[in-house]
Amino acid sequence: MSRQDGPGRPGTGLRDWRVEALAIFLILGAAVFTPLYLLYLTETSADLEKIKREEVNALNLSRTLIDTEIGAVVSDTRYLAGLWALRHWIGSGDRAARRALAEDYLAFTAEKPVYGQVRFLDIDGQEIVRIQRTDDSAEIVPVDRLQDKYERDYVRDIRNLDKGEVYVSRFDLNVEHGAIVQPNEPVLRFGMLVFDAANRRRGMVVVNFLGRRLFDRLRALGAGAASERPWFVNADGYWLQGPSAADEWAFLFPEHEGGSFAQTYPSVWTRLTQGTPDGQFEDEQAIWTYSQVTVAPLRDSTQAQVADPRHWYMVTKLPQDRIQARRYALGQDYLPAFSVLATIIAALSVIVARFRMQRQTARVQLQESEAHFRSLLEAAPDGVVISDREGRITQVNAATERLFGARRDDLLGISIETLLPEKVRKRHVGHRAAFYRNSQTRPMGANMSLRARRFDGTEFPVMISLSPVPDGEEMTVFSSIRDISEWQETQQTISDLNKQLASENAALTSANQELEAFSYSVSHDLRAPLRSIDGFSQALLEDYSTVLEDEGRDYLDRVRAAAQRMGKLIDDMLELSRVSRSELKVATVDLSRLAREVADALQASAADRKARIKIANDIAASGDVGLLRILLHNLIDNAWKYTNKCDVAVIEFGRRQELGETVYYVRDNGAGFDMAYADNLFRAFHRLHDDPAYAGTGIGLATAARVINKHGGRIWAEAQTDRGATFCFTLQPGNSQ
Amino acid sequence: MNDKEILLVEDNPDDETLTLRAFRKNNITNRVVVTRDGDEALDYLFARGKYAGRDNSVMPQVMLLDLKLPRLGGLEVLKQIRADERTKMLPVVVLTSSDEDRDIIESYKLGANSYVRKPINFDEFLEAAQNLGLYWMLLNQPLP
Question: CB of A44 within 8 Å of any CB in chain B?
C-alpha cells in the first residue's frame, strides 16, 4: 500500500478503512452472532426448562413415593383394625385372645420394618397389645411393660375420629422415656378407632411409621441435577429434611435456635402456602420447585378417609448462581466456535474494508490520473488531436485550437481531413485506412513535406506523429501536430550559414595552403642569398686574410655575423609560422627525452662550457611531439644562452603540482631579467637584453608561447636580474581558465 | 688527378662557387661536373642531349643533388635516376638548405642515400662520403 493515502487528505484513507472494517465487523458480527446468541439463549432456556422440569419430575417422583408409602400405611392401619383376632379380643377380652392378637400383630410387624411400633390401645389409652420393633426384629412387649398413654394427644385425637377415619399425626421424633431418641427417629403415627358390633368405640389401633427409611429413600432419589436434595418441610414451615442436620426438627429443639424454612425464606413460604399445591417459581435467589404432600387414602380405598389430612411440602431450591454457572458453562461451549467465527469475521471485515478502500483509491487515482492526463494534454505545446476510426475528432487540446485558429467546439466531431489542404484530403482517407490496418507509432508522411490548413484557409508546414491508442475494442489515433514553419526557417538559416561557413572554410584552407607554400619557398629563397653573403665573406676571410688588415677582417666578421643573424631570424620566423599553422597531433610525449636530446645537442655544440643540466625523469605529457620539441628547444636554448656568463651554468627541467595542475618549468641560474618588463617577454621581437653576449632574435619565446596556446595551456616566467629565471608552463586548460 | 667524378647538380652560381671552393680547401681534387638543372643532370647521366657523346659507361662516383632546382625539381630527378637500371645504384647525396622533415623523408623514400646541409657543411659531407664508402675517393695523396 503506498504512502499516498486516500483522496488528497493525508491519513484519512488509513483511518477510514479501519472504521469501515469495524462497521463491517459489527454488521457481519451482528448477523452471525445474533443467531448464535439466539441459539445460545434457546439452549440455555431449554436447559433451564429442562432442569426445572427435572426438579418437578424429581419432586413428583418423591411425592409418588411418599404417597405410596403412606397410602400403604393407611391401608395397613385399616387392616390391623379389622383383624379377626382383634374382634375376637373385643368380644372375649381374655388373655388368650389378647395373646392371639399379639401374635397376629407380631407376625404382621415382623415383616414390615417400616413400623416401629404396632399397638392396640383401649378406649382410655391403655396399651393392650404392643409390638415393639428392635433393630432387626420385632417382639411382643410383655404386659407388665405396657403403658398408659391416656394423656398423649394422639390418643385424644384418635378418640375423636369417626368410624373408618384414619388419624395421621404430624411428623415427630421418637421420644422414649421423655427424651428424644438419638439418632433421630422420625415417626409418623397412624391411628384408627375400633368399633364393636354394637358400634361402640372399644379401642384404637396405633401404628408408628418410621420415616427414616422413607427419608433415606427420598434422599437416594436425589434432586434434579442442579439443585440440592429436596427439603421436606412440615405444615408449620419447619424443616424435617433440610440443608443441614442443624436446621432439621428445629421445633423440637427450641434451645438450638435452628431456624425454620418459613423464617428463612418467608416470601417463598408465603407462595408455598398460598399458592397452588404444586408449583415452580423463581425469585432473585433461586428457582423454587415445590409439591404439597398430603396424606390421602389409596386411590382404590374409598372407605378409609383420612381425618384432617396432614400435608407437608417437598421443596427444591435451585440457586440462581448455579443456574448462572450452568449458563456460563454452556456459554463456554460456544467459546471455541465463537472465537473462530470472530476471527474469521474480523479477517473478512478487514479484507472487505481494505478491498473497498483500494477500489475507491483506485477510482480516485483513476480520476486524478484522468484529470492529470487532461491537464497534460492541455499543457502540451504541440497540438494533440485524438480521432476515432472514422476519422472524427474526439478530443483536442488548447494548442490545437491555437494552431488552427479554431474553437474547441468547432473542432470536435469534424472529420480530420478538414485540417488538411484540399488536394491531399482524398489521399489521406486511404492513408488512414492503411494506418488502421498496420498501426504503429510513427511520424506521418515520412519524407513528405506536410502542410495543414487553418480554419481561415491558410496553410502551414507541420510535422505530425501518429500513435494508435487501443481503447477497449475501439482503436483511436493520437496525433501530435507541430507547426514547423519557424523550424523550417531556422533550418534554412542554418543551411545558409553552413554553406557560408563551408565556403569560408574552403577559403581559409586554401589560404593556409598558400601560406605554407609561400613560407616554404620564401625561406628557401631568402636563405640562398644569405648563404652567398656568409659563404663569400668566409672565403674572403680565409683566402685573403693576408691582404685584409685587421679592420678589413673585422668588417667581414660583422658581415658574416649579420648574415647569420638574418638566417636565424628567417629560421625562427619560419618556425613560428609553422607552429601557428600546424594541427595538433596529440600523443603521449616523453618530455624528459626531448629535453635531454635538446640539452645534449647544446652541450655537444659547445663542449668547453661547464654546465650542469638536470632533467627530471619520466616526465610525460599529452601533446604534439614536434611542437613540444620546438617548445623545449626554445626554452632550454634560452637558458643555455643566458647562462653563458656563468662559471657553471645550472639548468633544470622538471615539473610540479600546483593547485591541481601539472606545471613544467625550465630554470636557469643565468642573467635573469627585470620582472617589470615581463609583459613583453612573449611578444615577438621584443628583447629585454641588448647585451650582444645574449644574441637572439626575440622570436623564440613568442614561438614557445604559440605552442603553449595551441595546447590550451599557459606560460609565464619568474626571474630576478642576475639571479636566473624560471619559465613555467602548463599543457592543459587549467582549473582557473 | 683522381679520375673519380663527382656530379654536382646546383642552379645557384654562388652556392656552386662556394661548394667548389670547399672541395678545394679540403683537398678534394676529383673532377666535379656541374649541371645547372635537373634536365641537364639527366642528360649527363644518360648521355643524351648536350652530353650525347659521353661515354656513359663511366658513372660519377657520387651525385650531389640540390633539391631546389628550376623546372624539374630535385626529387623528380631522384625518382628518374632510381627508375633507371643504369643509375639505380648511383650514390646520391641530397643537398638541402633546410632540415624540413618532409624534404628528408621524401628524399629517403625516393632513394637518396644521405643529405648534407648547405652551405656545404664539410664535416657532414665527409661523414656522408664515409658512409657511402667513398672515402678512398677523397684521398688525394700524390704519389711520392
Answer: no
Among B25, B97, B119, whose Cβ lies nearest the Cβ of A524? Answer: B97
Q: Please judge whether A532 and B18 are an interchain contact, meaning their C-beta atoms are less than 8 angstroms apart.
A: yes
Task: Please say whether the beta carbons of A589 and A622 come within 8 A.
Answer: yes
Give the minimum alpha-carbon distance from B97 to chain A in angstroms, rounded to a whole number: 7
Contact at CB, B119 and A531, closer than 8 angstroms? yes
CA count, 13 A, side-chain hemisphere, A180: 14
Binary contact (A536, B18; C-beta < 8 A)? yes
Residues B94 and A352: their CA atoms lie apart, in Å, by 102
Mean pLDDT by 10 residues, chain A (737 residues): 48 69 87 86 86 83 83 86 85 86 88 88 87 84 83 83 83 78 83 86 88 81 66 84 80 72 86 84 87 66 62 84 86 85 88 87 87 88 89 90 90 89 86 79 71 89 86 82 90 94 90 78 79 86 88 89 84 82 88 92 85 90 92 92 86 91 92 82 71 72 90 91 91 67
Contact B60, B6 (CB under 8 A): yes
The bridge status of strand A186-195 relative to strand A172-173 is antiparallel
Q: Do B119 and A542 touch (CB under 8 A)?
A: no
A438 close to A444: Cβ distance less than 8 angstroms: no
Q: What is the distance between the alpha carbons of residues A58 and A220, in angstroms, rounded to a whole number?
A: 11
Half-sphere exposure in the Cβ direction for A539 (13 Å, CA): 19
CB A484 within 8 A of CB A461: yes
Asked if the Cβ–Cβ distance from B98 to A528 is below 8 Å, we say no
| Full strand arrangement of the beta sheet holding A286-294 | A239-241, A231-233, A311-319, A286-294, A278-282
Q: What is the DSSP-derived secondary structure letter of residue B99?
A: -
The 3-class SS string of A84-144 reads HHHHHHHHHCCHHHHHHHHHHHHHHHHCCCCEEEEEEEECCCEEEEEEEECCCCEEECCHH
Cβ–Cβ below 8 Å for B18 and A539 = yes
- Count of other CB atoms within 10 angstroms of residue A48: 18
Which residue is closest to A568 within chain B, CA to CA?
A: B98
Evaluate whether A396 touches A408 at the Cβ level (below 8 Å).
Answer: yes
Q: Closest by alpha carbon to A469, among A529, A407, A385?
A: A385
Q: List chain B residues with CB under 8 Å of A528.
A: 12, 14-15, 97
Q: Does A527 touch chain B (CB under 8 A)?
A: yes
Helix, strand or coil for residue A451?
strand
Q: Does any CB of chain B come closer than 8 Å to the CB of residue A539?
A: yes
Cβ contact A231:A314 at 8 Å: yes
Nearest to A404, CA basis, from A387, A421, A389 = A421
Cell of A218: 427420598
In the numeric block, the cell 472487505 is attached to A352
How many Å lie between the alpha carbon of A578 and the closest alpha carbon of chain B?
11
* Measured distance CA(A305)–CA(A298) in Å, rounded: 9
Is A532 an 8 Å CB contact of chain B?
A: yes
Taking phi over 0 as left and psi of -120 to 50 as alpha, with beta for the rest, A483 belongs to beta
Classify residue A677 by its DSSP letter.
G
Tell me how far CA of residue A576 lies from CA of A334, A434, A571, A580, A634, in angstroms.
Answer: 109, 68, 9, 6, 11
Give the residue from A462, A454, A509 showing the smallest Cα distance to A483.
Answer: A462
Kindly list the residues from chain A whose CB atom is less than 8 angstroms away from the CB atom of residue B14. 528-529, 531-532, 535-536
Q: Identify all chain A residues contacting B118, using CB atoms and an 8 Å cutoff.
A: 531
Which chain B positions have a beta carbon within 8 Å of A534's beta carbon?
A: 119
The enclosing H or E element of A371 equals helix A320-379
Taking every pair of Cα atoms in chain B, the longest distance, rounded to a whole number of angstroms, is: 48
